[in-house]
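Lab meeting, item 3. Inverse folding demo.
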């Protein structure tokens, strides 16, 4: 009886081992076979990269993803960078992005730059502190906002845009 139990246990372990190997093989997906996920914001990102702010806003409106922190961040950025900036709209979009994702690095950085544009150093420094909490002092967004704050102070509390 003891041998039968041992044999049954060994057979069960062998069967489970084979099932695990089959499951691993079924889960193995080569990068070429991986599904491609399209980015609905890609068109707007391309327009932003080309400094086409009004077209980017229109594209974002077309896509219409107001529950996306990324979408709100890009809307805020486009409104802030437009030839005729709408800073109030930019602030609303950044605030919405941060309500959706309080650690959204882009919205934290760009809203900090917005506050520098508005001459509000304390709020920019608050965003910088939040960025440092979100990703540390070494992340790109923290470094860029820190450089903007430093330049703001060096320019007599006057904001000078990067581009």
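The presenter then showed the designed sequence:
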């Amino acid at each position: 009886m003891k041998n039968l139990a041992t044999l049954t246990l060994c057979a069960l372990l062998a069967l489970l081992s084979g099932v695990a190997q089959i499951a691993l093989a079924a889960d193995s997906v080569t990068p070429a076979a991986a599904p491609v996920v399209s980015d609905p914001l890609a068109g707007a990102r391309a327009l932003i990269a080309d400094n086409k702010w009004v077209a980017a806003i229109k594209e974002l409106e077309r896509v219409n993803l107001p529950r996306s922190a990324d979408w709100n961040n890009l809307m805020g950025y486009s409104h802030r960078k437009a030839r005729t900036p709408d800073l109030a709209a930019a602030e609303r979009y950044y605030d919405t992005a941060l309500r959706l994702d309080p650690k959204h690095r882009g919205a934290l950085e760009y809203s900090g730059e917005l506050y520098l544009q508005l001459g509000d150093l304390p709020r920019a420094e608050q965003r910088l502190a939040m960025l440092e909490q979100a990703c540390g002092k070494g992340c790109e967004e923290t470094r860029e906002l820190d450089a903007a704050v430093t330049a703001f102070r060096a320019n007599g509390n006057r904001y000078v845009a990067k581009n």
